[in-house]
Amino acid sequence: MGAVRKTIEDEVLGEAMSDMGTLRRKWFAALRPGDQLPAYEEVVLGSMGRLADHMALLQGSGDTLTIMRTGRALRQWLGQDAWDTRVADLAPEYAGVLSEVAANALGSLRPYATSAYHVVNGIVRTFDIYAMPMSCRWGPPLISAYVHERGEGYSLVDTIFRATDDGFMALAACRNAARTTVDFQIVDLNQGAARLLQQPAETLRWHRLSEGSHDLASSEVMRRLSAVIESSQPEQFEIATERGAHLRISVAAIGDLLSATVTDVTDLKRREQSFRLLFESNPMPMWVFDEETYAFIGVNDAAVVHYGYSREQFLRMLTSDIWPSDERDIHLKALRELDDSYQSRRSWRHVRADGSEIEVLTYGRRVNFGGRSAFMVAIIDVTERRQAEAKISYMAHHDALTDLPNRVMLQQRLQHTVEQCSRADRQAAVLCLDLDMFKDVNDSFGHPVGDRLLQEVAQRLKAALGVGDLAARLGGDEFAMILDQISGPAEVGDRANRMIADLSRPYDIDGREISIGASIGIAIAPLDGDTSEALLRTADMALYRAKADGGGAHHFFEPEMDRQAQARRALEADLRHALASGEFELHYQPLVNLSADRITSFEALLRWRHPERGMISPVEFIPVAEDIGLIVPIGEWVLRTACSDAAQWPSDVKVAVNLSPVQFKSRNLVAAVVAALAHSRLPAHRLELEITESVLLAETDANLQTLHQLRGLGVRISMDDFGTGYSSLSYLRSFPFDKIKIDRSFIRDLPDRADCIAIVRAISGLARSLSIATTAEGVETREQLDRLRAEGCTEVQGFLFSPARPASSIGELLARFGKNAAQAA
Q1: Residue-wise burial string across 572-607, b where 16 or more C-beta atoms lie within 10 A, e elsewhere
Q2: Whole-prediction pTM value?
């Protein structure tokens, strides 16, 4: 596990370093000659992609330092939505590091990198932080702080932090802008450390050593600790306190984190002159045995208590009497190879008086005891530590909520199964399972009920297992199963159907009857893959098909799914390069005002000119861009480009830009619009944003607030495809739209169908009564145009006037339709 965890941490750290390298290049690329700081919009606004989720925007300094907004990953780190929150009001572990990075970034006028540590329930989480100072045309400088969690966190082992006479502390190095260690912050400590430093743990935790009045707040201790950080070599030293005590401090470095053990050795120092007194009074079990006969010739009180033998019994025994029978040969071999001193390279099993076994580490040295050559041995019982390590190993391979194996164990077992299938010419099945309607349960009843439901699902899956089968939880409501030694697909299909039926039976959760469903994707080994990764991928493709078919069923993997998946991956890969490579274009379709009979607006339509495949339809690539999160940077590019193009048009001609529902989820939409207007100097009233009903279907309150913020800027808001959704009329009450666009499905049959005429007439009349403009889409014939004019429609657009044309054609379109649009059409 250590190697696996190290690999994961290295990958995450590598990702963070790559991200910080990207941010550093953006910062210096945006720095103009003669300027101390680059402009905010040049650094942060634009194609930040997933980096935006990891960033917070801060402004001010000292007590006025305020978080302007945060990305989604930042909210998870802070544990709250900290928009417009003073940093000083955050918990100390967040306030300290954010204040530090802001102060150093502003002080040096350069990006500043550091690390922060957060401890929750004994798990240390490491965060790499990169702060970039930027100028702001509307006020004081801004600081953009990128925060990325390094790895999965690690435990300050329970056996180290349990109550002992020793004190255990975790210290984080505090560095200045020159990366010099100037202090140490107490990240965590146990009660032993608090007792030794004679201050409550709550007073010491998250405070710097230099701020304290305890025995570690000295320049000498600081110097020794700094040396360990710089050398990365463990060190042990002792200090004498003003109260006459002696403390031994053992320190080891883990990056910028120190693990410190503080031991009170006052009594030990006082008794160093008396070996017997030290031996008898030592709280650690100790004994002395004869070098030739291996007989016990001395034993201390701690050993008597710990092992349960009386002193008289010990002194009649040989060391071999406490060895388990199956380890006696290896114990004896180790004794014969003893040098003048030794310490365990492995743990040993010892038998106590009551027959129970313990696991110990042994340390010894040759001594003269009563004139006899002997060995004095000290014992450390690591039974609890080994049990804790076994528990940690179990937790690393099992899901904490359901106690099912997790993805790591599933992949290990699946790879073994694949190898067995190849050698023994047999088959196994991999099932990827997803719960239908589980999100509705969480939304309706809360996550605690959802967690209970997942536990019940896990129990039903366990009950469905055969000999050699395995069920695992992959995360969320996703599960996987290995069905070993199957007879063929028919058997797997029957078992999948039974599982779906079983999982679809109602659940009783705290007196509530809850019903869900399940969908299953199936891959057969080794036919559908010869590695664990390939089988899970093909089973997941089959699950996707089962979900797409409506759920509540199973689906076997088919090669066509892989072809479609490869095509999708190729499109995703090309799409990720398209923006940086300048492959996107904006074409503009004119909107003609019927009362003025001229072009008053252009709708910006995105086009992708692929270098090999030519023009790719937006219907094909926009849903993919939304799925993989690229629609946000692409949408920001569209906004900037459309505003810049429109700024070159006559002052009475507007530009309309379509917004994806995904852009609303980014929480950066208003800032992107402000930046686009500021960069292009286009007046806000000349920008019209078109939204679809789906924007208001999700997170209604948050999205309505965003729409009101946009409206407050002076931007016009239009509802696209009006009349095709479920609640369009209710949305007209929720938000005062400037325009509604009548869907082309009502325009196509307008001259021939009375119901289409009635619908258009109703929409136009409703819009007039609410003082809302109307635009008819898809106008292709003169008959449609005449009917729309008769029904009082405000604007029209469609091929009757012009298809979407490149920006270079705008002048020609305006000239052609400038005098009389209807006649020109």
Answers
A1: eebbeebbeeebbebbbbbbbbbeeebbbbbbbbbb
A2: 0.44
